[in-house]
Amino acid sequence: xxxxxxxxxxxxxxxxxxxxxxxxxxxxxxxxxxxxxxxxxxxxxxxxxxxxxxxxxxxxxxxxxxxxxxxxxxxxxxxxxxxxxxxxxxxxxxxxxxxxxxxxxxxxxxxxxxxxxxxxxxxxxxxxxxxxxxxxxxxxxxxxxxxxxxxxxxxxxxxxxxxxxxxxxxxxxxxxxxxxxxxxxxxxxxxxxxxxxxxxxxxxxxxxxxxxxxxxxxxxxxxxxxxxxxxxxxxxxxxxxxxxxxxxxxxxxxxxxxxxxxxxxxxxxxxxxxxxxxxxxxxxxxxxxxxxxxxxxxxxxxxxxxxxxxxxxxxxxxxxxxxxxxxxxxxxxxxxxxxxxxxxxxxxxxxxxxxxxxxxxxxxxxxxxxxxxxxxxxxxxxxxxxxxxxxxxxxxxxxxxxxxxxxxxxxxxxxxxxxxxxxxxxxxxxxxxxxxxxxxxxxxxxxxxxxxxxxxxxxxxxxxxxxxxxxxxxxxxxxxxxxxxxxxxxxxxxxxxxxxxxxxxxxxxxxxxxxxxxxxxxxxxxxxxxxxxxxxxxxxxxxxxxxxxxxxxxxxxxxxxxxxxxxxxxxxxxxxxxxxxxxxxxxxxxxxxxxxxxxxxxxxxxxxxxxxxxxxxxxxxxxxxxxxxxxxxxxxxxxxxxxxxxxxxxxxxxxxxxxxxxxxxxxxxxxxxxxxxxxxxxxxxxxxxxxxxxxxxxxxxxxxxxxxxxxxxxxxxxxxxxxxxxxxxxxxxxxxxxxxxxxxxxxxxxxxxxxxxxxxxxxxxxxxxxxxxxxxxxxxxxxxxxxxxxxxxxxxxxxxxxxxxxxxxxxxxxxxxxxxxxx
Length: 823
Known about the structure:
The chain has 30 helices and 21 strands. The protein is of the alpha+beta class.
C-alpha cells in the first residue's frame, strides 16, 4: 500500500491553510481573527481541505482500483448490504419491486432493514443502478461516503460558530469531525455513517431554535426529526436520545431560571413531538417489526433485567484503556485485517471516536479554561455533568445499551462522543487562538498522558501498528510544541499545530479505510471469470422452465457471498446472513434445526449447507432443489441434470410448500421433548400459542385424525402475494414456511380471515372443509395509524407556528423582564 497519495494530500492541506492565512483576499490572517459569522472564504478553505483529504484517503476507491466493499472483519458490507442493494436495484429495473423480500432467508419485510432501505444517501446508488445496471452498484458506494463526509464538515462548521468565533478553530473542528473514527469505520457499513451527519444536523437546528424560535426554525427541527426517524428508527433512537440530553443541558446552561428553562425547552419539545408524529407511516411500521419481529429486541431477558444488568456492569480496566486509545484514533491497536487483540470486543464494536492525536492535550486545556472561565457555578456544573456522562458511556454499560435499545452490549452510539469531542476541540482551539494562551502545566500533563496512553497501546497492540504508534507519539510532541510556540512567539505556529492535529485524523482515516481487504473489479458478478457462475445460472434457468410450482432452492457452493447468493442470483432460498433475523424464525431453528444457526443457535446466520443438510427439515422449509458444485452423496437427493461444473439435485422428500396437519399443540407442551421428537411432530401437528388463538378456532379443529386434505397449487403471484388452493374433507390447519412478520393478511375466497403464528415463526391458518382459494398478501403493519399520526403532526406544527409561537416568544421576554426587576 502506497502512502504517497496521503502524503500529497496532507501537504496540500498545509499549503491551503498557509495560503489562506497569508493571502490578503479576505484580510491577512483572517483565519485567526474573531468572526461571529461564517464567511464564504472560510467555507472555501474548509471545502478545499475536505476535497484534497477525500482524494488522498479514498483515491484508490474513486479511481476504482478497488471497491468500497470490505471482505475482512467488515464483511457485512459484502455479505449483507451489497446483496440487498443488488437485489433491490434488479427488482426495480424488472418491475418486481415489493415491500416483502422473499429471497432473503425465509422472507423479510424491507422495513425490517429500514436503515438500508431508506438510507437517503443510497439514492445515489439506487438511481444510478436503475438508470444503468445493478452492476454499477460497487462504483457508487464510495460516492455515498464522500457525500456524507462533505456534508458533515459543512454542517459542523455551521454548528461550530456557537462555540468559537475563530475561523481556524471552526475549520479544524470540521475537518476532525468529518474524518472522525466512527465515520471512517462504521461509515464503511454505509447506513451507520448517517448517524454522524444526522446528530450534528440535529444539534445545529436545536441551537437555531434556542437562538430564535421562529416558525421556520421550528419547522426545520420538525423536519430534521422526521428525517432522522424515517432514515433509521434504530440509529434514530440513538441520535434523538443524544439530542435530548444535549437539549436539556443547553437549555439549563442558557436559561436564567426554572421558568426560563421550560420556555426555552417548549419549542424544542413541540417540534420533536410533531416530527415524530409526521414520521408515523414509517415509524409505526418499523416499530412493530422491531418490537414484535426482530430478534434484536423481541427476544432475550425482560427489559427490567436488561436495565439492572447494564447498570451493574462496568468495563474492565483493559477496555477502559482501549477506549482511551480509541479517543485518539482507530489504528493504534490493530488493523481491520487481523484479529483484535482484546478478546472482550472486536475492531468494530469497541469505542470509535478518533478525534485526533491531540484529544487528550486539548481536553486538559479545556479543563484549564473551564476552571478559569467566567461562567456561573451552575454552568460549570452542567459542563462537569456533560463530561461525566461521556465518561460513564465509556466505563459503564447502561448508556451504551440504552442507546442500543438494550439489543446488545456495544458502543455503537460512540458517534456522540466523537461529536462532543470535536466541539470540545473547536472551543479549546478557539480560546487558544483568541489570546487566552495555553497552560504550560496543562501542556505538560496532556503530553505526558498522551504518551502514556500510546505506550499502553504499544503494550497491547499488534506488531503491524507499531509504526503508527511511533508517528502518533511524534505528532503529540509536535502539537504541544507548536501550541506553545504559537502562544508565546509566532501565531504562524498555530497553523502548523492545526495541520498536525488534522493530519493525525486524516492518516488514521487512511489506515482505517485502505489497509484492508477489499473487492476488485474481477470479483463483481458481471466480471467474474468463475465458470461455475454461468453454470449456476443455466441450472436456475432450467428449473424455472421445467417446474412452474412454487418452491425454494438451495446452493451448497457459494460464489459471491457466504450465505446471500440467493439475492445475487434472484432465487428464493433458505440460507441468509441477516443481523435482524426474526425472533420467531430463530425460535423455530432453535427448536427444530439448531445446526442451521452458528454461535450456539443465537446468531444472525441461517444456513442450510452440505455439512448440516437434513432432508426432513429441508422439505419442511420448502426446498425442492439443490445446486452443488460437483457431486454430493446425501440421503434423499436425486440427480436431475448437470450443467458444466454444477449438478442439480431434487429433494425426493419434498411434498409441497404448504403443510396440512390435522391437529395443533401448544408450544409449552413441546418444550420437554427431545430434538428428534420435536422433528417428528412437524409432519403431524402445528405448534402454536393456544392462548393467542380464539377458542372457536381450536374447537373447529376437533379430532381430525382421520381427515385428509390436498394442496392443489401454490402460486407466487408476485413478491409478497401467494395464492394457495386447498381441498380438504374437514377442517384442518395449514403451515406456510414464510416468516410471519406483522403485516401479513389472509383472505379465503376473497373474504378476510385470521392468521395464526405457527411453529414459532411461520404463517398458519385454519383450512375450511371443501375447496377454497387462500390468498396471502403482505402490507406493512402500522401504515394506517401512522398516516393518522402524520396528519396530527402536520396539524400540530401548523397550529403552533401560526397561533402559539408568540406565546413562547412573549413568555421569554416577560421572564427576562421579571428577572431584571428581581435584581
